[in-house]
Amino acid sequence: MDKKKVDEHEAGSVALPKVDRFGFVKPEANSADGLTRSRSAFEYEREERRIRKWRKMIGVGGSDWKHYLRRKPHVVKRRIRKGIPDCLRGLVWQLISGSRDLLLMNPGVYEQLVIYETSSSELDIIRDISRTFPSHVFFQKRHGPGQRSLYNVLKAYSVFDREVGYVQGMGFVAGLLLLYMSEEDAFWLLVALLKGAVHAPMEGLYLVGLPLVQQYLFQFDHLVKDHLPKLGEHFAQEMINPSMYASQWFITVFSYSFPFHLALRIWDVFLYEGVKIVFKVGLALLKYTHDDLVKLPFEKLIHALRNFPEDAMNPDTLLPMAYSIKVSKHLDELKDEYEKHHGKVSDSRVKQKLQQLSAADTASIQLEGQQICD
After folding, report:
1. Chain center to CA of 60
2. Structure pTM?
3. pLDDT tens digits for 4-61?
4. Are 306 and 247 in contact (CB under 8 A)?
5. Of the candidates 356, 274, 281, which has an alpha carbon nearest to the alpha carbon of residue 314?
6. How many C-beta neighbours within 10 Å does residue 52 have?
7. What is the largest CA-CA distance in the chain?
8. Is-contact 205 247, C-beta < 8 A?
9. DSSP string for 154-173
10. How many angstroms from the chain centroid is the CA of residue 13?
11. Helix/strand/coil (H, E, C) string of 89-143?
């Protein structure tokens, strides 16, 4: 009798929540989720072939990446759009974002920021930690390794760039990165994004007044009217503007509230091609649900724009639709128009500042963080 009770207790104590293949706790109703079903032998072999191609393309530790990228940029773009193999995602993200170079040029800087500096944002970061991916096993445990790593990355960045400091949406970006790389790697990828190592700087998403968000929403509003005129007219009649539904798309690059498997595919392309993929995906979502959206009144429209149907979130359907939408030229024109009335959002000198970061002088890192946008 006693032994039976012990056995039952032990069985109960090791029961773990069911998680999907990315580590998110699954609601019981979705236990038969198609994304987590076992793969057929054919699918497994196809994935193995993809991984072998990618390994050959990037080389050991990324040693062949730049050479391959120079020789076959179109192959790289096509493969990235098909999705980076999950086991290689962290490394490839670092290679395509320019963050690996920043890391190598600045040894010891991250440790300096985490251990020896203090930030005025520390209490805000601690308060928000538990709100970041609360259903993911890595971040669920209070003061656990996931929450500690997230705190360290956000605190380090708030010291590195005191002008930006910390804004709540940054947690989802840093959290996403931490699921695929170490703290230090995630920190430098955050730096690469916000300071513009490869693409235009994103720091304006998080500066006071969110100036870059305002620019993006202005551009997106005009793109909707241009590409989907009937829906644009309906939005105007119902007094719907992009700030009511699209701000989080830009601030977190779809990592907040969107299905994780879709967010990852978008991030693959975003890191390689830049922010235009956010506009394209946004337009594709509206195009896919167009016929339903044009019939809805204000209240139902707001709900629909924040809760897209599951079939609209299928990356194999949505992303090809997004890729087919051409926005680059129009985005540039709209940016020029916006800047005429509001001034430039960011300063090109941030790239020069990135190149000047001195690995030898970690003692002055606090000053670097304050001056990088001066």
Report:
1. 26
2. 0.85
3. 444 444 444 445 678 888 888 877 654 444 444 556 788 888 889 999 999 999 999 8
4. no
5. 281
6. 11
7. 81
8. no
9. HHHHHHHTTTT---TTHHHH
10. 35
11. HHHHHHHHHCHHHHHHHCCCHHHHHHHHCCCCCHHHHHHHHCCCCCCEHHHHCCC
